[in-house]
Amino acid sequence: MDQTVLAGIGNILATEALWHAGIDPRSPANALTRADVKNVVRGLGTAIRRQIDSRERARDDVFFAYGKEGTSCRRCGTELRRIVLGGRGTTFCTGCQARRKVSRTRMRPLNRGEKDRSVRGVRSRRNIRAPG
Ligand SMILES: [Zn+2]
Questions:
Q1: How far is ligand 1, taken at its centre, from the CA of residue 23, in Å?
Q2: Prediction pTM value
Q3: Among 31, 95, 100, 101, which one is least packed by beta carbons within 10 Å?
């Protein structure tokens, strides 16, 4: 789990947030879309709320992924897997947590004289133009 995007988030919360967001923890942070990031933040909120409410729950009921390796995913039924990433263990579902990959077109540097046709390039050219 790359902690550069969500630095300081503990292992339990990160594991839970990624499960809620449906994102494979092996995904590189720079492969996440805006929607992914939004979903991770939303997932964090859910995970934090569940931990706060956990006094009223049995401990078994608090987490969806953390410490649940070998059990069935509550969303899709696939067996949860535990892996070690960057020295830390994390549990996730290979069935419904999709692995994001950095697309080649996004990573390829522009050739000399080539226009940036990516969304970002189009947007920056638009901003250069004077209004009206
Ligand atoms: Zn699943």
A1: 10
A2: 0.72
A3: 101
Structural domains in the chain plus CATH codes: 11-102 (1.10.8.50)
Question: Radius of gyration (Cα) for the chain, nearest Å?
Answer: 19
pLDDT of the chain, 132 residues: tens digit per residue: 555 555 667 889 999 999 999 999 999 988 999 999 999 999 999 999 988 888 776 666 789 999 999 999 999 999 999 999 988 899 999 999 999 998 766 556 677 787 766 655 555 555 555 555
Ligand 1 centroid–CA 83 distance in Å is 15
CA distance 92 to 71: 11
Residues in the chain: 132
Residue 57 to residue 75: CA distance in whole angstroms? 19
- Kindly list the protein residues that place their beta carbon closer than 5 angstroms to ligand 1, a single-atom ion: 73, 75-76, 78, 93, 95-96
For residue 132, report the distance from its CA to the centre of ligand 1, in Å: 50
Per the structure block, which two tokens stand in for 108? 């390829």
Q: Distance from the CA of 57 to the center of ligand 1, in angstroms?
A: 22
Cα of 84 to ligand 1 centre, how many Å? 19
